[in-house]
Amino acid sequence: MMEELRAKIAGEEFDYHALLDSLREYSRPRDKITSLLRQGAIVRVKKGIYVFGERYRRRPFSTEVLANMICGPSYISLDYALHYYGLIPERVETVTSVTISRGKRFSTPVGLFIYHSISMKAYQIGIDQVELESGHFFLIATPEKALADKIQADRGTAVRTHAEMGTYLLDSLRIDPDGLGRLNPETISLIADHYRSRKLRLLSGLVRRLGGKREGHE
Question: Which of 197, 57, 51, 162 is nearest to 111 (CA)?
Answer without folding.
Answer: 51
